[in-house]
Structure formats: C-alpha cells, structure tokens
Amino acid sequence: MLITIENVLNKDEVRQFRAHLDQAAWQAGAVSAGTLARHVKSNEQLGENAEPAISLGNHLLRHLGADPLFISAALPRRIYPPRFNRYAGGGSYGTHVDSAVMQIPGTALSMRADLSATVFLAEPDEYEGGELEIEGQFGAQAIKLGAGSMVLYPSSSLHRVAPVTAGVRVASFLWIESLVGDDANRALLFDLDPSIQKLTPALAAHQDELLRLTGIYHNLLRRWAIT
What we know:
Strand content: 25-35%
Oligomer: single chain
Shape: globular
Structural class: alpha+beta
Number of helices: 5
Largest sheet: 9 strands, antiparallel
Order of helices and strands: EHEEEHHEEEEEEEEEEEEHH
Distance between the termini: 22 Å
Helix content: 25-40%
Number of strands: 16
C-alpha cells in the first residue's frame, strides 16, 4: 500500500526548514548505509545527533502526531526520528530494501520497520530526476511530490532514488513500526476507517449501524494490534 499525504508541512514551514538545512553541515550518506547499500548510495545526510536535524525532526513529528490521515494509515507504535538527505550532481541511491529492525538513537529500544516515509522538501521543478521509485505488485511507481508532502510505503519494498541530474533534491525520511505489522491487515483497516468517518454524518440517525461499523473496526484492530 502506497499512500501520499499532502501538506504535512506548509510552504512557510518548508522555507524555514530549507533555510536551516542550506546552512547545515552535511556528510556522506554512505556513512550510515548497510554493507550492501553502501555500494549503491551516493548522497549527503545530516548526522542523526546534529542540529538542525533534531529540532526539525521534532517539529515534523509533532505534525505527524496530529495528522489524522497519517495516524489512520500508519497506526504508529514507534517512529524512528526523522533524518534528512540531499542529492545533487548525479547523486542517486540504487535499488535496496530497508533494514527490518533498527535501534532508536539515544535509547535501548529496538523497532521493527514496517513503513518507510519520505517528506519532500524541494519542489519538483527545483531539480531534474530524483524520483523515488518503489517496486510493487504491478511494477515500479515513480514518486516526485510537492515540497511539504509525504509518501508512505512498506519498508519491505525494493526502492531507489533516480539520479539527480540538475538542481538539488532535499528530503526527510523516517521509519514507522505499526501497531499492525501485517501490510494486508493494515490496508484493510485503512480502507475501513476513512469510510466510517465519511459515513458518520449520514448515519447520524442510524446509531446502531454506525456503532456496528465502528465495533468491527476496533475488534479487528484489537485482534491484530501488537502493543
């Protein structure tokens, strides 16, 4: 399941993020890559303990925690602190799959990566190439969203970033451990939840039916959730 969420950050916030990021101390992205990914990764990243990564990441997390679509789609249990990267001058990230288990920085906690997310921080016309290509059941989908928008997709997916041949691609990326680890079960709940929300006004006079639908959602969540 691939989901786009528009305007996670508004344009003013994107400008503020970019003002900080443009002055930041970037390092080679291969430093944080695994053994295989290191050979196909050519970009720059901010260190996870460096400013402005921490303050900007916390700002982004506050927005996500208040975004109904993100909560409904991800059902987050734990979130890896957002990180930041940029691609320029032919930089790319070849086909790879994200690690299944990660240790949350600064803690003794580990998390399972169920979902990966990219928040685009550059407008599509600011750079050429740089599409996030995600392989799925029906082939690869190329994603290039407006600044401030997010794409959410299974961490088990093979994916890559196409070479940036002009301009600079800037983004934030993070991983989510969901309360519901199974992609198919989580997709079913996501299909059900927005439908209930949309039907609520129409079913105001039919409380029994509304309660039944809501009960189905929560009983499925109760069956599948890992807390």
